[in-house]
Write a structure and sequence with these properties.
Layout lengths: L5 H6 L7 H11 L3 E6 L4 H16 L1 H4 L3 E6 L5 E3 L5 E3 H7 L7 E5 L10 E2 L4 H19 L3
Parallel strand pairs: 1-2
Antiparallel strand pairs: 1-5, 3-4, 5-6
């Protein structure tokens, strides 16, 4: 049985549905939006979620630093872009030139890239640092620092 909405998010990441609404929320909180681009058959994507992003999403300290969403790059699921345009998850990924997974991108509240993408799992010992660096850069851009 598939779970939707908050129940599904309890064990995984919140799947992107409306980046325009996420951006409004991010602007109020002065935080960036971090997006994990995945495919269902990617073991490295699952590892990134399990070891890094789901724990981050559950940690109250990160709620004041970043909004985390997931996008499936080959999906035709509907998605509202940062500018309010209706699109699909796959088209959103293609528009941002995401073809390798896992890829993590951090966006400002206007939908602009706010840091360099983190492509692949890279070196697991340093991966958390790469994510923190991307979040920190995103925060500086959102807060105009």
């Amino acid at each position: 049985m598939l779970l939707a909405g908050p129940a599904a998010a309890a064990g995984g990441l919140v799947h992107a549905k409306n980046f325009q609404a996420d951006a409004r929320n991010a602007a109020k909180r002065k935080v960036p939006v971090m997006v994990l681009f995945t495919t269902p058959s990617c073991p490295y994507c699952e590892q990134v979620k399990r070891e890094y992003l789901v724990p981050m999403q559950k940690d109250p300290a990160y709620r004041t630093r970043v909004i985390i969403r997931e996008v499936t790059i080959n999906s035709t699921a509907p998605l509202t872009g940062f500018d309010g345009t209706l699109t699909t998850e796959g088209a959103f990924a293609a528009a941002h030139k995401v073809f390798m997974v896992p890829t993590v991108m951090v966006f400002d509240t206007q939908g602009n890239a706010a840091s360099e993408p983190v492509v692949g799992l890279l070196i697991p010992d340093y991966y958390f640092g790469y994510l923190m660096s991307a979040i920190d850069e995103g925060q500086r851009k959102v807060r105009g620092e």
